[in-house]
Design brief:
Distance between the termini: 50 Å
Radius of gyration: 21 Å
Low-confidence stretches: none
Number of helices: 1
Largest sheet: 5 strands, mixed
Shape: globular
Mean pLDDT: 87
Helix content: under 10%
Length: about 280
């Protein structure tokens, strides 16, 4: 037969050949490791000291901290009747939101681990949640039905319902417009900025809301991260990560095409937004 040249198999690069950034991340070591009894679907670090990590798994939310012999359990929040779906801390670290597959969202006091109240109103699973940055008594939840709901945490009142997305919502985050500004994203591939001023009242209003910016990520959005100040937003979905300038009306600033060979399911920033993971 004819001679056919074979390409050499790809070899892992030596550490000296890596870029300084790659060497920096390669030097990271596992500080703590803990196996959960069910699939981990979400995790969030407390923004206030001692920065406990809330891990969503099965029908519970576990609070963990790194210890000398691995991850140490601080406590387990297991007062859920259905599978837990998402978790979010308030800025001061005193309250926790935890969404359930049954359609409710628990408001938990971090110190006592007690469920203070449940926000009920979603007809399907609560897939994302967040506290407002400018108003500690305001919170938002997003559901599998694509609807955004705004709540008064102090009274459990549903203030507003918005038909935000045509598919499951995966991201909700406070925007830069005060307690009435929100950023959402979902499986319809859209990233939207909302101005919901004037939506309060004795009865929860169901309206299209005021969507001031809508951009297309091009893939179902799995996760997102808001830059400090809320003027920029990073969306992750498919194999791409995109960074949008919301202050300029949703201009695409950066596109990390094929960031991974498989679907990107999470994205986060460090404290000063100089590194993206």
């Amino acid at each position: 037969g004819e001679f056919a040249a074979l390409r050499p198999l790809p070899q892992a690069r030596r550490a000296v050949e890596l870029t300084p950034e790659a060497q920096h991340f390669k030097a990271f070591k596992t500080v703590a490791k803990q196996k959960e009894s069910a699939r981990v679907v979400a995790a969030a670090f407390c923004p206030a000291k001692p920065h406990h990590c809330a891990v969503v798994s099965g029908t519970k939310v576990g609070l963990w901290r790194p210890g000398k012999n691995g991850a140490e359990a601080v406590s387990t929040l297991s007062k859920f009747k259905d599978l837990s779906q998402c978790v979010a801390w308030r800025g001061d670290g005193k309250l926790i939101l935890a969404g359930e597959a049954g359609g409710s969202c628990a408001v938990i006091e971090a110190a006592s681990k007690n469920v203070l109240r449940r926000l009920r109103g979603h007809g399907d699973a609560v897939t994302c949640c967040a506290f407002a940055a400018a108003d500690r008594s305001r919170a938002a939840t997003g559901g599998r039905d694509g609807r955004l709901r705004i709540w008064d945490v102090a009274t459990s009142d549903l203030l507003q319902t918005v038909d935000a997305h045509s598919d499951c919502m995966k991201v909700v985050a406070p925007g830069h417009g005060g307690p009435d500004g929100w950023i959402t994203a979902g499986y319809d591939g859209k990233v939207k900025v909302w101005d919901l001023r004037g939506g309060d009242g004795a009865k929860a209003s169901k309206a299209a809301g005021s969507c001031v910016i809508a951009v297309d990520h091009g893939h179902p959005v799995e996760a997102g991260a808001t830059f400090p100040g809320g003027a920029m937003f990073a969306s992750a979905g498919g194999t791409e990560v995109k960074v949008w300038d919301l202050a300029a009306g949703g201009v695409l600033l950066h596109r990390l095409a094929d960031a991974h060979s498989k679907v990107v399911t999470a994205v986060c920033l460090d404290a000063d937004a100089s590194l993206m993971l």
